[in-house]
Amino acid sequence: MDPKSDEPRDDHEEEADGERHIVALQKFVGFVMMVLAWLQLLVAVSSGTDANSTPFLLFFVGIVIFVNGTVSAWYKYAIMASATVAGLAFHYHISSTGAATRLEKGIIVYGTILIVAYFMFAGQKPARRIRTPNPPP
Is residue 40 part of a domain? Predict the structure, then answer.
């Protein structure tokens, strides 16, 4: 019989479990919002159709939610503030002109591709550990 199962759980452990769930939910919701908005803008860029400010708002709100759940460094709030300002600036500009231009849609679509490619190919990679075979006796 496990002695831990008889003991009541500590309040701090329960809060940590709840916080992990909230962080996972923030990562998931933020990522889904960014992907769905990016797909809307990709279709608008490739087909030449109009896009209003909604996909831009969804994209930048997704960035804010995702960063809030993933980044714990000192620059977390600077990234969130800059994403908020950029999203509101795009919203104001697109609302005043009526529809987003191809350049504005392309900035988000191709900028996202470049950022993802950078972190896929140029980011730090974990050290590879090669197991050498045991020497013969």
Answer: yes
Per the structure block, which two tokens stand in for 37?
A: 């908005």
Tally of domains in the chain: 1
137 located within any domain = no
Query: Given this model, what pLDDT does residue 1 score?
Result: 45
pTM (2 d.p.): 0.77
* HEC sequence for 11-75: HHHHHHHHHHHHHHHHHHHHHHHHHHHHHHHHHHHHHCCCCCCHHHHHHHHHHHHHHHHHCCCCC
- Nearest CA to 45 among 107, 106, 93, 87? 106
Q: What is the pLDDT of residues 69-114, one digit of tens each?
A: 998 889 999 999 999 999 999 999 999 998 899 999 999 999 999 9
Is 100 contained in some domain? yes
Amino acid at 79: I
The number of beta carbons lying within 10 Å of the beta carbon of residue 67 is: 20
Phi, psi of 99 (to 5 degrees): -150, 155
Q: Is 55 exposed, middle or buried (0-12, 13-18, 19+ CB in 10 A)?
A: buried
